Amino acid sequence: MTDAEFQGVIGRTYEDSTPWWPELPKAPKDAPNIVMVLLDDVGYAQFGCYGSDIATPTFNRLAGDGLRYSSFHTTSLCSPTRACLLTGRNHHSNGMARIVEFAAGFPGYNASIPHANGFLSEVLVRNGYATFAVGKWHLTPATEMTMGSPRDRWPLGRGFERFYGFMAGETDQFHPDLVFDNHQVDPPATPEEGYHLTEDLADKSILFMKDLRATSPDKPFMLYLTPGACHAPHQAPRSFIDKYRGCFDQGWDQWRDAVYARQVESGLLPAGTQLSERPAWIPAWDSLSADERRLYARMMEVYAGFLEHTDHCIGRVLDFIEELGETDNTIVMIMSDNGASSEGGPNGSFNEMYFFNFEPESLEENLRRIDDLGTPNAYNHYPWGWAWAGNTPLKRWKRETHEGGVTDPLIFSWPKGVTATGETRHQYVHAIDVFPTLLELIGIVPPTEINGVVQSPIEGVSFASTLNDGAAPSKHITQYYEMFGSRALYHDGWKAVAFHPLLTVDYGDGLDSHAPFDLDQWELYNVANDVSETTDVAADNPDKLRELIEMWWQQAEQFKVLPLNNQPAKFGDTRYRHDTYVYYPGIGSIPENIAPNLRNRGFHIIAELDVTADANIDGALVCHGGPSGGYAVYIQNRRLHYVNNRLGAEITTISASVPLPAGRISARVVFTPTGRFTGDIALYYDDVPVGEGHIPRTTPFSYGVDGFTVGHQRGASVTPAFTPPFAADHSVLRRVVIEGIGRAYRDPVAEERVAMGQQ
């Protein structure tokens, strides 16, 4: 309802009055529904219709009934790509140069998308659409994801009418950190009851459509559906995983060759496209030991099952649209946010918390637990050899500006509007082009203002002309790229690209991550004829290379790319870090980046209790982390306990020797470091010592995505000693005070590794 001036007649009675209702926003005639499916960390070659032998029947059918694009480009990272898709502006223009956890105090890096850059949802909801966001968000500053935060940068603050999903970059697929609209909720079932996040997201997508059609049978909708798949942890129902047993025993070299052959045969790749060489840091499959091959093949089987399960769940959503009779006039787009992820490292991981904490994993131990891969008992990721193969035939991967990082699948289906079916489009398209394309197809003129805020120019260009004309020229002529100091410039079929190494990754290639940016080696490719960047022609075309480098600097100035930086954690937002925190029980989960930083420093945790003589006082007082690592303070059998869980491998519990007495008591946990990442725990009731013990090794840098809670445990438990939520009685636990003693330990390199692994 609008605030338009009343245009009826108001008399003294109803008999001499004329009612009037303002006209509600109405979508253009025959406006299509929009289903935008954005997958996570899925490489260019991992859909069946892009050459893979992984079963993706839903995606294949959509490509057969519609179009697949061979030259769709993203930013090489998730938050930046999502900002581009939803606003039509470049990632630095959105302040989203990096993921939100790497916010810094520069215009292109502050992780705060300006309201002048209106979201597609904000435009559509003002033009008669219903708007739903389901799944991963990761577009709110990390410091604003708590229950006490403002909501103007949450989904419902940016034009979505309903939201169900998770706010951060990744979550456990069996124990997700869920938000429904503007508040945290627990999953509706447990893994033992068959729960999986992707299935839950499909259910909520269908529910939102049911609710809409119950009251508005003709209103078009936008569904922005963004599963956590296939981001680590790779987790899926066992039935989907086990069907791939033995399917990847040939290894990544042979698998990649077979994928490339299918890509060429199907016409996905332009004529003459060559398969890029295996880089030196990827071992030949035949050089691995038999145990390594067995483990790495199983890790890929888990990933394949995860992807097929995702395809199945998306299929359920589309089947419901068919049941509604609305398939014909529904635009469906399937895409990924960046190239396949190498964040599993050279050896993959059973629990990626090891990688984040610079702890080596044991091949023998991982083999012993091989059957747990993909289950709630693992937090796994595959080796980077499979990421390289997942981007066939391209170079490199996620986070980098070579084609393997920035080229992704895009399937476009609209039976009513696209007469061409089963065809491949080779025009250059970028994520910022989706916004203007959809507005053109619907017939909506981009607004000049939203909520009184004047709108910035849209930086993408529509590719609507390519939908029914395979020969239509690409309208997107020039596009810059920049990610963690690596950069590139595409212009009219040419591409200049410079790789700058990250501090957290050592490829063994001798490149210095501390070297000045001016010393980076620029390469030049004619990508119109060499999409896989196999022939560097810089030496033969020095003038063209200089032209493109100069254009890059011009675009960097224009789109807020500067200052260049490959150490994003160095300038991270620490405004919400303190030495003393006061919390009351029942608060929502707090993400790690603004939770108390107690790693490798002394601390006091003081729980102020009102203990009654007869009541059950057991419950969690403070928890941070989950089964893969963390700590907790809790009462059980009326005694105080402190537990340290190091990476799920070593659990140390220190318990009080006597029960809590009745009355007002301060139960205290005191940690005194005795070395780096080790120390002693002392327990007190008021000032009376009641327990002590030694922590042989604390978690160095990160507990992962499981948040910090007071008065209960959210998600899966830090310790097998209790089952969540294990909530404390609020009449017993009055508040918790946490004091950090000494300088807070920070390692920007480690923090960078953690944040980039969770994007």
Could you list some keywords that capture this structure?
Alkaline Phosphatase, subunit A, 3 domains, 28 strands, Arylsulfatase, C-terminal domain, Jelly Rolls, 14 helices, globular, single chain, 21% helix, 759 residues, 6-stranded antiparallel sheet, alpha+beta
Note down, in words, how this protein is organized.
The strands form five sheets. Strands 1, 2, 3, 4, 5, 6, 7, 8, 9, 10 and 11 form an eleven-stranded mixed β-sheet that branches. This protein has a six-stranded antiparallel β-sheet with strand order 18-28-19-24-25-26, with no helix packed on it. A five-stranded antiparallel β-sheet has the order 23-22-21-20-27, with no helix packed on it. The mean pLDDT is 94. Helix 4 packs parallel to helix 7 and helix 6 (251-266) packs parallel to helix 10. The chain has 759 residues and is an alpha+beta fold. The chain is built from 14 helices and 28 strands. The chain is 21% helix and 22% strand. The protein has three domains: 33-472, Alkaline Phosphatase, subunit A; 480-571, Arylsulfatase, C-terminal domain, CATH 3.30.1120; 580-743, Jelly Rolls (Sandwich), CATH 2.60.120. Strand 21 and strand 22 form a beta hairpin.
